[in-house]
Amino acid sequence: MNYELTLGLEVHTELSTKTKIFCNCTTEFGGEQNTHVCEGCLGMPGTLPVLNKSVVDYAIKTGLATNCSITQFNKFDRKNYFYPDLPKAYQISQLYFPICQNGFVEVNTDDGNTKRVRIKEIHMEEDAGKLIHDPWEDCTLIDYNRGAVPLLEIVSEPDLSSAQEAIEYLEKLRAILQYVGVSDCKMQEGSFRADINLSVRPVGQKELGVRTEMKNMNSFKAIARAIESESKRQIELIEEGKTVLQETRRWDDNKGKSFAMRSKENAQDYKYFPDPDLPPIEISDKQIEDIRKSLPELPEQKKLRYVTQLGLPEYDTGIITNSVHLVALFEKTAELCGNPKEAANWIMVELMKLLNDSATLPEDMSFDDTSLAKIINLLAENKITRDTAKKVFAKVFEDDVDPEQYIKDNNLAVMTDNTLIKSTIEKVVADNQKSVDEYKGGKTQALQYLIGQSMRALRGQAPAQEVTKILKELLD
Amino acid sequence: MQIENDIIRYLEAQSKIELSDSQRDECKNNLQNIVSFIDTLSELDTNGVQPLIQSFPIVNAFREDEVTPSVDRELLLSNAPNKKDGYFKVPKTVD
Lengths: 476, 95
Ligand SMILES: [Zn+2]
Known about the structure:
Strand content of chain A: 15-25%
Number of strands of chain B: 3
Structural class of chain A: alpha+beta
Bound molecules: zinc ion
Oligomer: heterodimer
Strand content of chain B: 5-15%
Distance between the termini of chain A: 73 Å
């Protein structure tokens, strides 16, 4: 029997405001344990929360960039649960009036079409502290630095139907958040993480299957693996005539398996109620319009412009526009070298290869953003060969060297001294009498060999055309 | 609504506390009183009445996004029953 997957994602993204959501502690990542903490974010009795204005602005930005309508009357609610990562024993969140509703994000599907993934809602809430297991004393240690850092929870409708689509959606969403500047979305620092709601059903069946929720996803690869593994597990249960239980499961990426969380953790009865400590938020039409006007060009708009105005291939623009870091490098390079196609080509071929080979993410690139344009210009002016250009770019990528200085220091510029080129080739001809005879006897391949030998003698620094021309003159 | 022992036990589990039999009885009576009071209120016809979700007529109380120094860690930890190396220490909750 064939099965189809129904997937919805809940994305938590930490906002890049300077301060926490309800107090003035810094949101800076890292820092010694419990040093970014005050009596407010520790929930000590007698303290009161006051909302960070920027959190509302950031949430509106995100909502507008994802085609949501903005809820103009907002309220915070308490989500009650006892767990030590939450010092107040409740999380301040939004249940009844989420700030953004009914949006969508467009993603590319496996068959090359686009698909709208609906966004049910986006709400504001506070992050929890970090629990660390202490193996020496077999106890749990708590660091509240991350506690009360502002979060947006972005809840999609179950519109996704494969791991591939889920990743496409997450990449697009991350790009949007980075473009509008509300989050750095660093998965390895936990500022962009996703929970997966997944069910399977036989193709043709109307009702959805029983869904499970998987938490603890912190890389795209882990998410893809978790989706594959969980759908397989559910299908196997159904095939064996067993039932899928509605439960929360924890994904263990090392073991490549998910585990049901203990039933106590599964008992979800949050007893939501409006938080009496926080007055409602009213958002005016003007505020929404002002923010709408301030939005930067978004990935889809950029993509369209790159294709129609710059004539770039659609595939390339999709890759580049999905990363705010690649966009920044592309735009700077195109501006400085005046050749967008060449800039895109270098990014798609050479940069992608360097990123892949070194397992580096675009956000971790650390070279000067003018270097690639310098290399492209030197190449266009025939001051270096294409081979040299690639080598210099690899060095730039690795050590952030200045291309011009590096070329000079290592004597990599194209030889402009024609007498030197000619004398080098003359020596090659003299040393390879056999090949010369073969060429003269009609064997054209011998010329290729002589070109190769000459290029080697010239250390690849003479233009190939020039070398061929001189060789022919000498031989004919 | 009738408050039964099951409900009290459920709430104990949710609140991670355990009551003695006499405490449970006392709690049951108190809760029954509160719930009965609410039941009385429920008799009122509230069709067309907006739910009250705030008790003060204020909106938009905001704070500027400016960092001020956090509180000294030793001071914050001074009331903690258990601590270690600048962390709060609790019984094992993660694997
Ligand atoms: Zn604080």
